[in-house]
C-alpha cells in the first residue's frame, strides 16, 4: 500500500504498449461496489474471496500490466498464481516514504482509515513483517527507491523475459 504500484504500473503499461489493470478498480467494476463498501458489507474475508476470483479471471488475459493491492499476494495461493502467469515485482520503498504517501493519500483505504502517524507506521511495519514471506517470492524485488520510474524497472524485466 502506497509503494506506487498503480502509478508505476500505468506508466509501465504505456511504455510497453500493454493494457493496464488496477485490480482494486477491476473488483469494483465487476461487483458494482467500492472496495470500502465491500469491506463494510462482507469484511476482509469477503473482499479477499472477491480478490482471488478477480486474479483467477485476469490470469487468462495476455499483454497487460496488473497492479494488485498490497494484500493480494498474501492470501490463498495468489502469489503462486501470479508468478506462474507473469513476472511479479515487489516495490519496497522505505517505511517513512510509505507513511508520508499514505498520510497524503486521498483514497479511502479501509485498513488504515483514521490511523495516526504512529499507528500507521506501526501498521506498516507489522504488515511488512507478516507479508515478507509472500512478497519475497516475487520475480523482481526493487528496494529503497524513493521515486521509482519506468527506466528503473525495465532492466529488471529484460532479465526475466
Automatic annotation (TrEMBL):
Residues engaged in binding Mg(2+): 6
Binding residues annotated for ATP, in chain numbering: 2-7, 109
Biological or metabolic pathway of the protein: Metabolic intermediate biosynthesis; chorismate biosynthesis; chorismate from D-erythrose 4-phosphate and phosphoenolpyruvate: step 5/7
Swiss-Prot/TrEMBL GO biological process terms: amino acid biosynthetic process; aromatic amino acid family biosynthetic process; chorismate biosynthetic process
Protein EC: 2.7.1.71
Cofactor(s) demanded: Mg(2+)
Keyword Kinase carried by entry: yes
Residues binding substrate, per UniProt: 24, 48, 70, 131
Main location: cytoplasm
InterPro entries attached to this UniProt entry: P-loop_NTPase, Shikimate/glucono_kinase, Shikimate_kinase/TSH1
The keyword Nucleotide-binding appears for this protein: yes
Record keywords: Amino-acid biosynthesis, Aromatic amino acid biosynthesis, ATP-binding, Cytoplasm, Kinase, Magnesium, Metal-binding, Nucleotide-binding, Transferase
Enzymatic reactions: shikimate + ATP = 3-phosphoshikimate + ADP + H(+)
Protein role: Catalyzes the specific phosphorylation of the 3-hydroxyl group of shikimic acid using ATP as a cosubstrate.
PANTHER family with a match to the protein in the record: SHIKIMATE KINASE, SHIKIMATE KINASE 1, CHLOROPLASTIC
Family: Belongs to the shikimate kinase family.
Protein name according to UniProt: Shikimate kinase
Provenance organism: Prolixibacter bellariivorans
Source species taxonomy: Bacteria, Pseudomonadati, Bacteroidota, Bacteroidia, Marinilabiliales
Gene from which this protein is expressed: aroK
